[in-house]
Write a structure and sequence with these properties.
271 residues, alpha/beta, Rossmann fold, 11 helices
């Protein structure tokens, strides 16, 4: 069995750029092919609205924590096309976004320029961050570190570049979620319908405390993200959208136990 490398992951995400799913599902509107270099603010807003319709919990965290961003140096690990980064910049953060995918970085820069915002986007690897020790006030990373080959290295790097007293907002796949049931039991792809990511890991509350707790103070662990209708096509997807999602909505408390993601805050001790 061949080991999956960072290059394998880079190649996947450069080809399957996250949040373009909603445009791909309506590619006839774009001549059957997505031309990233021609994206206007309209395309970016469609992708932003779609993202936050799926993961509204993340947008709520951005808004609720906005008092902490002003003039703070924020590193987003796995910025993708820059959707979360723009919201952090809008609320006063001095954002640096890194991603393995060159195409994603180009799109993030275009999105930034269309908004006339300031912010830095560059290629980067979570397992080998190219920043000085104790450089950032805040680390932001949602839906990213569960795709890296060695999350321990990434945790060590987060610790190294985060200032003492700094805070991190982290979101990962939850081990006991409805999403993992569909993925592992029903063999459904998680990321793109046609092709899944090379590495997909998931974590329990116990895992988070064990992996992150030896370096950080961990607070506010929550299970988040209920199922929402997808833009995928096919019979199974229709059943998911028309039956599963609607049934779940009658029992929203289920998200507290079986939501798709586990969210937590990390604090680097002062000494």
């Amino acid at each position: 069995m061949n080991l999956i490398t960072i290059e394998d992951i880079r190649e996947y995400w450069d080809k399957m750029i996250n949040n373009t799913q909603v445009l791909r599902s309506n590619s006839n509107n774009y001549g059957g092919e997505l031309k990233f270099n021609d994206f206007s603010l309209t395309e970016f807003e469609i992708m932003k609205n779609w993202r936050y319709s799926l993961v509204n919990s993340i947008f709520k965290i951005i808004v609720n924590e906005s008092k902490n961003y002003n003039e703070k140096k924020i590193l987003e690990i796995g910025c993708g096309i820059g959707i979360d980064a723009m919201e952090l910049i809008k609320r006063g953060g001095k954002v640096t976004g890194i991603d393995l995918s060159p195409q994603s970085i180009k799109l993030a820069e275009r999105y930034r320029d269309l908004n006339n915002y300031e912010g830095t986007f560059q290629l980067g690897n979570a397992e080998k961050l190219e920043f000085e020790k104790n450089f950032f006030d805040i680390i932001w990373s949602f839906g990213v570190l569960h795709h890296t080959p060695n999350i321990k290295k990434a945790i060590d790097e987060v610790y190294r570049v985060l200032k003492p007293g700094g805070i991190g907002y982290i979101g990962l796949y939850y081990k006991y979620s409805y999403l993992m049931f569909f993925h592992k039991i029903l063999k459904q792809n998680l990321e793109f319908q046609s092709e899944d990511a090379p590495i997909i890991n998931c974590y329990s509350t116990k895992d988070i405390k064990k992996m992150w707790g030896h370096k950080f103070i961990i607070k506010d662990i929550q299970i988040i993200i209920p199922p929402t209708p997808t833009c995928r096509k096919g019979f199974k997807e229709k059943i998911y959208n028309m039956i599963f999602v609607k049934l779940w909505n009658h029992f929203p408390i289920l998200t507290n136990y079986f939501g798709a993601g586990i969210y937590f805050q990390i604090f680097k001790p002062l000494n």
